[in-house]
């Protein structure tokens, strides 16, 4: 299964394409629109281009967390909405995971730090050069979370052996 993981944001959106068993990193990076650009339009176009190029089967992204700053939460919600729309425009299923469940799947602790997530993502994906960007690491982490979750969903859906 080829998974596009997305860590949505207006200033920087991380993405990671994972596939295979064991999971391998195919591509990753950040989408960073210039401040004078229409950021949402740029984000939509770039995510669409990544989908066209890599042809993922599913998209996984972090669910909204509750922020103290209402304006930041609304802006993040816009970025998430654009990412979801870009995926749905290409008929891809979208799965959302809470930040806590992503950290549990990758680190084994829901309160893990950003550095712990980066270290574990690099280890899980057996990378010779560790991921430096928090946004890229978060995108890879949500894709890893989906891969683990999908395995369990398949097992639960399979009929019981006689």
Explain what this protein looks like in three dimensions.
With 162 residues, the protein is of the alpha/beta class. 48% of the residues lie in helices and 18% in strands. The chain has 5 helices and 5 strands; from the N terminus they run βββαβαβααα. It has helices at 39-54, 70-88, 99-106, 114-124, 134-157; strands at residues 3-7, 13-19, 24-31, 58-62, 94-97. It has a 5-stranded mixed beta sheet with strand order 3-2-1-4-5, sandwiched between helices. A hairpin with a 5-residue loop joins strand 1 and strand 2. Helix 3 (99-106) crosses helix 5. The protein is globular, with a radius of gyration of 16 Å. The mean pLDDT is 90.
Average pLDDT score: 90
Beta strand %: 15-25%
Shape: globular
Radius of gyration: 16 Å
| Separate helix tally | 5
H/E topology pattern:
EEEHEHEHHH
Question: Which structural class is indicated by helix and strand composition?
Answer: alpha/beta
**Count of strand segments:** 5
- Ranges with pLDDT <50 over ≥5 residues? none
What would the keywords be for this entry?
single chain; about 160 residues; five-stranded mixed β-sheet
Concise account of the structure shown:
The chain has 162 residues and is α/β, with parallel strands linked by helices.
Blueprint (SSEs and pairs):
Elements: E1 3-7, E2 13-19, E3 24-31, H1 39-54, E4 58-62, H2 70-88, E5 94-97, H3 99-106, H4 114-124, H5 134-157
Parallel strand pairs: 1-4, 4-5
Antiparallel strand pairs: 1-2, 2-3
